Amino acid sequence: MSHSLRVIFAGTPEFAAAALAAIHEAGFAVPLVLTQPDRPAGRGMKLQASPVKRYAQDNGLAVAQPTSLRRAGKYPEEAAAALELLHATPHDVMVVAAYGLILPQEVLDIPPHGCINIHASLLPRWRGAAPIHRAIEAGDTESGITLMQMDAGLDTGPMISEVRTPIAPVDTTATLHDRLAQLGAELIVKALVELERNGTLPSTPQPAHGANYAEKIGKQEAALDWRRPANVLARQIRAFDPFPGGVATLDGAQVKLWAAEPADGTGVPAGAAPGQILDVTPAGVVVVCGEGTLRVTQLQKPGGKRLPAREFLAGLPLAAGQRFQLPDTPTV
């Protein structure tokens, strides 16, 4: 089926590529795709195209990769050229998903129907860069996608529609990301069909209360502080899969922990200190925490692969009584 609505798309990672694919496959014309400049990645640090750019190129869609869209920013000439291209490309609406560049008011004003953002949180719960990670880390029981009419603030625009999904006790950022990418792709196609049919999309202002800022995940957060409760550490490990992983240091070597659960019923003996290994079995490595104990079931040694505890222990035996180091500064 073909549609008359013309959509400029702006996005960069896999999450955005899923939405672009759904819009294109639903028959909407996509006269232009904006994505971040190619970045060095992988072992050889070769320049790599974003997932959105790869999809666009595979499907014959025009791509632009400006370093900035702000005339007053560091790259005024590139920004001016990109703005000229947006003005010169006939379109009706712009869809934005995890693009990674700030859109100034001038850009928001170009599309006749404005810019619609696909945001991976039930707004206003998590605004900002890492809503999926932060929802898991905080122990939220549900997440979802909000479509939002963009304004100049950070994820503050009025809400068009949302879809919800429970966060399962085994969800990681990777699994929740894939589910939300799919839900976002379905929700945006529905919205575009409605916009085409009715010429408008009703929206509601975000509630004034309950907003949190989902700070980007930093590598320095990976170090696990064993003084924290076991359930908090288990959530942190799930939130940090696939990046940056939970990091524990043993005898100076950094071991990555990829899966763990509070070890119910494992009492902490008197005098056991946080970080101390209590028990080592093929089912997992049990470690003392500030509250309770944690059973780690998937680990990775430096230069190794992610392995279930049984296989990991065959290559790097651990023993009860050994102790993971505590980070220098306690995490609150």
From TrEMBL:
<dbReference type="InterPro" id="IPR001555">
    <property type="entry name" value="GART_AS"/>
</dbReference>
<comment type="similarity">
    <text>Belongs to the Fmt family.</text>
</comment>
<dbReference type="InterPro" id="IPR011034">
    <property type="entry name" value="Formyl_transferase-like_C_sf"/>
</dbReference>
<dbReference type="Pfam" id="PF00551">
    <property type="entry name" value="Formyl_trans_N"/>
</dbReference>
<dbReference type="InterPro" id="IPR041711">
    <property type="entry name" value="Met-tRNA-FMT_N"/>
</dbReference>
<dbReference type="Pfam" id="PF02911">
    <property type="entry name" value="Formyl_trans_C"/>
</dbReference>
<keyword id="KW-0648">Protein biosynthesis</keyword>
<feature type="domain" description="Formyl transferase N-terminal">
    <location>
        <begin position="7"/>
        <end position="192"/>
    </location>
</feature>
<dbReference type="GO" id="GO:0004479">
    <property type="term" value="F:methionyl-tRNA formyltransferase activity"/>
</dbReference>
<comment type="function">
    <text>Attaches a formyl group to the free amino group of methionyl-tRNA(fMet). The formyl group appears to play a dual role in the initiator identity of N-formylmethionyl-tRNA by promoting its recognition by IF2 and preventing the misappropriation of this tRNA by the elongation apparatus.</text>
</comment>
<dbReference type="InterPro" id="IPR002376">
    <property type="entry name" value="Formyl_transf_N"/>
</dbReference>
<dbReference type="InterPro" id="IPR037022">
    <property type="entry name" value="Formyl_trans_C_sf"/>
</dbReference>
<dbReference type="InterPro" id="IPR005794">
    <property type="entry name" value="Fmt"/>
</dbReference>
<keyword id="KW-0808">Transferase</keyword>
<dbReference type="GO" id="GO:0005829">
    <property type="term" value="C:cytosol"/>
</dbReference>
<dbReference type="InterPro" id="IPR036477">
    <property type="entry name" value="Formyl_transf_N_sf"/>
</dbReference>
<dbReference type="InterPro" id="IPR044135">
    <property type="entry name" value="Met-tRNA-FMT_C"/>
</dbReference>
<feature type="binding site">
    <location>
        <begin position="121"/>
        <end position="124"/>
    </location>
    <ligand>
        <name>(6S)-5,6,7,8-tetrahydrofolate</name>
    </ligand>
</feature>
<feature type="domain" description="Formyl transferase C-terminal">
    <location>
        <begin position="216"/>
        <end position="316"/>
    </location>
</feature>
<dbReference type="InterPro" id="IPR005793">
    <property type="entry name" value="Formyl_trans_C"/>
</dbReference>
<protein>
    <recommendedName>
        <fullName>Methionyl-tRNA formyltransferase</fullName>
        <ecNumber>2.1.2.9</ecNumber>
    </recommendedName>
</protein>
